[in-house]
């Protein structure tokens, strides 16, 4: 990966339209550098690396798992995984074995855990490629059978439900699951590597349930170790717990949204947490026109201009993952924050350039409209789009669609 113009990580973030970009497709192959990228999610891999280093420093001596499921929270699984490992992440984590196999096929051989399975999951392939497997109960038997077929031990992490009520083994069934795993270990079919659990309310700092979950987790670990488990990794913390509860760090933490520079804590910004948002969603403005007061805008005509003004057309819509209900969300155009006017459509939405009115609206044609990015650069925060869409930052970035090219910055600099 060559052709990166800006190798200094401390350099100001380049404006999306300014710096020469390295274009890497989602398989990680360098692409010809197009002169103009009309619409893109720009992903700053230097920000990913910076976030990994900041999170590792925060949790040391615990190790860091970079959670790259859901196409790296919409940022692109392979480039993010490479950047995270490059910056010192110790593990990769995904939900599905299919995601894990994609990482292995790309040549990534780091410790890798997948935790959400169905009876159709390809455990044979997981065993063949050294993918660690989360086990909540029923999976143990088919995983052990796959290991026997493949002639090598499956690496498993038993999951205890400490209160989330989603996946995980109940406290009642836990001793039996531990015993079954250790029996398989004695027979060479399984290596019981870890015990883990997932937190329900770590983003709400005043809720008592996290204490209950930590206590239940310690008890489950004690049962496993008491039964003879030799655990390499006890892990509980997600991003909110990484950032607010050091007592949840244990041997390993699983960093998802914070890896991408986004805050999991309501009302706390990325910068306050020492994190840098990695994704900027932007598009070149497709049309600008002058309209009189009272002009209706977009389907339903729910918005009317209050005064003569210029309307800018942004070529991103709900088919690109821009939430349809986010009418009134902020957009940075020509150095000023404006608002979405009227309904967001499938392919496009309109911005009313009313306050402040640009001196030369026509000059804005082809310039960038920035929906969100790093607020330190003047871009709206992804959290503002989340608020406008009545959701969380996680959902905004993970739903940016396949029609939006990902454009990678700083892919090549090693540190
Ligand atoms: C997605 C996921 C994470 C990451 O959560 P964040 O809040 O994004 O850090 C961690 N653990 C499990 C089991 C997950 O499913």
Q: What is the strand content? A: 15-25%
Number of helical segments with 4 or more residues:
11
What structural class do helix, strand and pairing data support? alpha/beta
What is the number of independent domains? 2
Assign the CATH superfamily of the largest domain.
Alanine racemase
Largest sheet: 9 strands, mixed
Ends distance: 14 Å
CATH class of the largest domain: Alpha Beta
Q: Reading side by side through the largest sheet, how are the strands ordered?
A: 13-16-19-18-17-20-12-3-21
The outline comes out as elongated
What portion of residues is helical? 25-40%
User: Ligands in the structure?
Assistant: pyridoxal-5'-phosphate
Query: What is the C-alpha radius of gyration, as a whole number of Å?
Result: 24 Å
For this structure, the CATH topology of the largest domain is TIM Barrel
Number of beta strands = 21
**Model regions low in confidence, pLDDT < 50 over at least 5 residues:** 1-21
Q: Mean pLDDT, as a whole number?
A: 92
CATH structural architecture of the largest domain: Alpha-Beta Barrel
Keywords: Isomerase, Pyridoxal phosphate
Active site: 69, 299
Catalytic activity: L-alanine = D-alanine
Cofactor: pyridoxal 5'-phosphate
Detailed description of the structure:
The strands form 4 sheets. A 9-stranded mixed β-sheet has the order 13-16-19-18-17-20-12-3-21. It has an 8-stranded parallel β-sheet with strand order 10-9-8-7-6-5-4-11. Helix 1 crosses helix 3. It is elongated and about 80 Å long. The protein has helices at residues 45-59, 69-73, 77-86, 97-105, 123-128, 140-150, 174-186, 209-226, 239-244, 382-388, 393-398; strands spanning 23-24, 30-31, 39-44, 63-67, 91-94, 112-114, 132-135, 154-159, 190-196, 233-235, 252-255, 279-284, 287-291, 296-297, 303-304, 309-314, 330-333, 336-341, 349-353, 368-372, 406-409. The longest helix is centred in the middle third of the chain and has 18 residues, at 209-226. It has 415 residues and is of the alpha/beta class. It folds into 2 domains: 45-260, TIM Barrel, CATH 3.20.20; 279-408, Beta Barrel (Lyase, Ornithine Decarboxylase, Chain A, domain 1). The protein contains 11 helices and 21 strands. Bound molecules: pyridoxal-5'-phosphate. This is Alanine racemase. It catalyses: L-alanine = D-alanine. The active site is at 69 (proton acceptor), 299 (proton acceptor).
